[in-house]
Design goal:
Blueprint: H1 4-7, H2 17-21, E1 25-26, H3 37-49, H4 60-80, E2 88-91, H5 94-109, E3 115-119, H6 128-137, E4 140-144, H7 154-160, E5 165-171, H8 183-192, E6 196-200, H9 212-215, E7 219-223, E8 234-238, H10 240-245, E9 256-259, E10 264-266, H11 280-296, H12 298-317, E11 322-324, E12 336-341, H13 346-355, E13 358-359, E14 361-363, H14 368-373, E15 379-383, H15 390-406
Parallel strand pairs: 1-13, 3-4, 3-5, 5-6, 6-7
Antiparallel strand pairs: 2-8, 7-8, 9-10, 11-12, 12-15, 14-15
Amino acid sequence: MVSDKDLLAYDYKKDFPLLANMDVAYLDNAATAQRPLCVIEAERDFYLKHNANPLRGLYQLAMEATDAYEDARTAVQKFINAKHFEEIIFTRNTTESLNLVAYSYALHNLQPGDEIVTTIMEHHSNMLPWRMAAAQTGATLKYIECAADGSIADEALAQAITAKTKIVAMAQVSNVLGRLNPVEKAVELAHKVGAVAVIDAAQSAPHMAIDVQKLDADFLAFSGHKMMGPMGIGVLYGKKKLLDAMPPFLSGGEMISMVSRDGQEYAPLPHKFEAGTVNAGAAAGLHAAIDYINSIGFDIIEAREAALTRLAFEGMRQIEGVRIIGSPNVEEHKGIITFTIDGVHPHDIAAILDADGVNIRAGNHCAQPLLDHLCTGATARVSLAFYNDEADVRRLLDSLKTIRERMGYGR
């Protein structure tokens, strides 16, 4: 059996120019990941060698740009094991993907009296679109509450999802608690009552294998920038039969096949949902990010992140005044540890850590209803990636040990 020490011995930072060239422990990976050189070079290569408007020109450069863009779609299809190429829609990010479902599916399928079920622990991006859809259609938005450790009981799921339920929306992994949610059970219960299941995979896609056919999700969304791809590129997976029946989210160029003075015909999937000039350079970068992840393998990624999380979690529990939010079991924190320090505002925690070369996130993490539910205000959050190392965690712990004294406690 491989020990944690052996598992953490390999230096992945050499693949990441920013990490290789800066003296920083970057522990804000839940917000955005760093980019390996291969991703930066792929996007650069697109603009140096293939830059033209994809899908429109018949000259060589335009065809090369189209190939780069559609090859990225194929890479995403294989990455999440989608059945059809057309089920992969490129957007700007997870937020836009979820809004696309809310506007193009929910607004056209919900009626007064229908119910949307989500959880109290959702990122605002998987909450506010459904609130909008409920307000505009007369549907009701229901929240499933979690326990203090972040768990959702099977009974709570079963009670919330009823014959009135039309949409069930849930994050696969909480961006605050790092908790792996029971999405398989949620999908199963949704389908039993004829509802569709929408999965926010922003915090799971970079860290674990996803098989949308096995999961049987109707829609699933994630962002490129959280999985080491460029900013400004996101993915919406949707079952083909649902996407075919949905009207476009945006109108304009490229999403049509014909326009007359009095009408139009929409382009077939996936282009019906990709109006205007697309972000082909970022798509090329996302393709490279997927290839890089595949070259390492999720078995290594998950094992390294689990080892780093364990090291940080156990070390933080030994520091006076540090209180970890969520489960007391390290296995239930998928690379994310959210915490407070007695008497110290999270913004001060982040500022002191930053002075020591440690980057973390402080605030409400776009999940204010969850923090209200847990009876806490702002918190600090450490989020790890496989390219972090033991030195990053030690640096974090050494700095955390000094914070209360530097803030005037314990003198």
